[in-house]
């Protein structure tokens, strides 16, 4: 899972800024031969970007690469390559897209080959597959690998034992490995400075996400949301660039609210807001634009989503805390959405349904992702039971085009919107 | 008692999805409690020391009609969680007081939360284990986790679990490990006397009866198997890998044997063999269980291999230690851990010129013919080329 690059047609200045940041990071990644910089690969949930920066290393996120390849419609071939090489058709397609990409020379979106990682930071947060994925990469690259195990919130809370364990691993495993690979000594004050930047940007991100409580919502918190979380969840949290980016987005949204505008879509401003939805699950990337269109054509706007929380539940109050640099990294990793247990996830969605005055819940169930998907049918029932609002279930995949059926999704959504209409007219009849 | 008598009893236990033996055990004393657990490992010693019965749940197999469970899962998720939900919703597990969900994959992990939602009031614990094997890092985390489990069970029963009780339970399970290993060793030595389907049923029995009773069953079987007259066949010797969670139907195991393979090692129900050596009974028992986990655990896909060179080491030991001639990767469909692990293990096999085949199954797979053919061809090719 991860934040994507933004859909191309949004042309606000924040968009251009983000585009520049992403391109810059790919240039940095593909230029390490010349610059001598070291590369670390890691995952979006539990991404320790501030720590990585303390060692002057470049952050490479394979999930983001898979998304890039998905959106450029090349992931399908890569997945098939991996399957031909012996990887099962049943497993997560991010892993296979990554392995397939490697087989094709690891070409970055700028057309240049990516370097082999100097280190793998296996931040094992909220997904079991992460562990196997990086074992597979280590199997190929034979590079230093450090595991950061993040215990799961089985009982819906973070205990002292869990937190101490994570901090201890940071001190005794992760930081020493970074020092060894990078040759840079760890400086906790440097980390504090980055964390201050993170917290500033996080305040604005939350403001942006919560702006969807307005009617009409000035943002789409799922399709547009992946664009807003981009810098925060990837290689930019903690940078001055990210602070600037979130200032910019906030100003743009403030302007939209003043003008009473709905969200921006690939085809311009969304006109009438007919349906307000909460969405659970990651999006499909291979048909991202077509998928989104099925919503905005019907006047459906996503007002809150769980996917935009995979890299942190900032809207529930978490902020990186420069006063407790390692503890805050532990809290951050422990708190990511998929590290929450199912009852917590249901509670969060229920809260979103109420706080964002949503008409219903939509679950986009991803074939690849057991972490998200196992249990979603029960979650759906629970939300229906607790809120009395209709819920719908669609099935797609992340980056495997074979599992996105436009016709099926369209049918499902159309009947879902009808259901919402019926429910509404039923409610207004009852009130009359 | 003959092996046939013993196995008939084990088979009856295996087929009994109402868990009558465990129910009876509980009914004998109103203070008794039953704690169920899923694959792949829990420290049963702690449950035992609490005076409770650990009950291993391996899904519903091919004998359970799944009526409600399918409504909880998409088609691309393995079978074991849906049949386990079925067992719960159909009240077959209504006598169970608590359930442990070990950290094995995201499906079982999420099932722990589903269980909380579906069965409020029951003791439910996601049982986490360390993937860091240093005593003062993963070890201290795990010791604290074990203590939380201990406290949870104490709370449930209203009784303290003493260190002495823990040591005594470790002793009983050490005996169990010894006997289980003896059965495995005997099968490896003389697989014609100890068919794998029998070993399988013996181990399944160990999930549903008290450990003391299982120990007796194993002793009886070992004694009876010595007397079995059976002649050695020209079968090839294989190790099964990837079947540590959702179980194949018994027929699948029989089919592999019928196809000309002696299974000389496997990873079915590895809870019995998770710890390779006896756990120390002197000193702090929780510490001892923790250290044993860190340093004596077998390798499986649910565990992180700290070093790349350790990947496949255990499988290679299984092959060499049992003079196996090939590996059969038999994995449940949609099982991420097993299926993601396989390419790495397969590479190790190739590096060491160990032939292997792979196939997938589901606990309710019905068609055995393709598997029998595949295993038969594999056995033939091994005989031809070895
Ligand atoms: S299983 Fe899900 S969370 Fe894990 S890597 Fe795949 S998509 Fe990401
Ligand atoms: S069969 Fe595999 S994926 Fe399914 S619950 Fe077991 S370990 Fe998880």
From TrEMBL, chain A:
Designated name of the protein: Benzoyl-CoA reductase subunit B
Molecular function as annotated in GO = benzoyl-CoA reductase activity; iron-sulfur cluster binding; metal ion binding
Any idea which UniProt keywords this protein has?
Answer: Iron, Iron-sulfur, Metal-binding
Tell me which EC number(s) this protein carries.
1.3.7.8
Family, per entry: Belongs to the FldB/FldC dehydratase alpha/beta subunit family.
- Any Pfam family: HGD-D
Checking PANTHER family in the record gives: 2-HYDROXYGLUTARYL-COA DEHYDRATASE, D-COMPONENT-RELATED, SUBUNIT OF OXYGEN-SENSITIVE 2-HYDROXYISOCAPROYL-COA DEHYDRATASE
- InterPro entries noted in UniProt: Benzoyl_CoA_Rdtase_B, FldB/FldC_alpha/beta
Class of enzymatic activity (EC top level): oxidoreductase
| Residue intervals passing through the bilayer | none
Q: Which domain of life is it from?
A: Bacteria
Q: Which Gene3D superfamilies match?
A: 3.40.50.11900
From TrEMBL, chain B:
* Pfam hit, one: HGD-D
Query: Electron transport: is it a keyword of this entry?
Result: no
This entry's Enzyme Commission designation comes to 1.3.7.8
Citing just one GO molecular function, the answer is: benzoyl-CoA reductase activity
Keyword set, alphabetical order: Iron, Iron-sulfur, Metal-binding
The organism's superkingdom is given as Bacteria
Q: Which InterPro entries match?
A: Benzoyl_CoA_Rdtase_C, FldB/FldC_alpha/beta
Q: Which family does it belong to?
A: Belongs to the FldB/FldC dehydratase alpha/beta subunit family.
Task: Kindly provide the name given to this protein in its UniProt entry.
Answer: Benzoyl-CoA reductase subunit C
